[in-house]
Write a structure and sequence with these properties.
Structural class: mainly alpha
Strand content: under 5%
Order of helices and strands: HHHH
Helix content: 40-55%
Largest sheet: none
């Protein structure tokens, strides 16, 4: 699957670069008017009108290839295996802590019945 995605991505990048080059080579609509009245542009590589048709058709084909590659990449990026799960599902399960014995809790200072025998409220500090 990874090889196919890489291949589709390479085809998409090459078609994008070729489209950019072809679009920059093409002349605008206003350049046709100058060629019709005898400007120097009529002696081009593809002839007076042949270049526009060839370049525009090639650009359209490259745009279609780019569009199909983009759709395929979007489709394959959303296609996930059914067995995949959350990262948290694979987390280690720990056993609950053992209950604390009451006899050992009385050994901790401040715990137990003998720890606090004076129930009087301490006096407020003098100002």
């Amino acid at each position: 699957m990874s090889v196919m995605l890489t291949l589709i991505l390479v085809v998409q990048m090459l078609s994008a670069l070729a489209m950019i080059g072809l679009i920059l080579i093409q002349q605008g609509k206003g350049a046709d008017m100058g060629a019709a009245f005898g400007s120097g542009g009529s002696g081009s590589l593809f002839g007076a009108t042949g270049g526009a048709n060839f370049l525009s058709r090639t650009t359209a084909v490259l745009a279609a290839v780019f569009f199909v590659c983009t759709l395929l990449l979007a489709y394959f990026s959303n296609a996930r295996p059914v067995a995949s799960g959350s990262v948290l599902e694979g987390a280690a399960v720990t056993a609950p802590a053992a209950p604390v014995d009451a006899s050992t809790a009385s050994q901790i200072p401040g715990n137990g019945t003998a720890a606090k025998t004076d129930n009087s409220v301490p006096a407020a500090p003098a100002k």
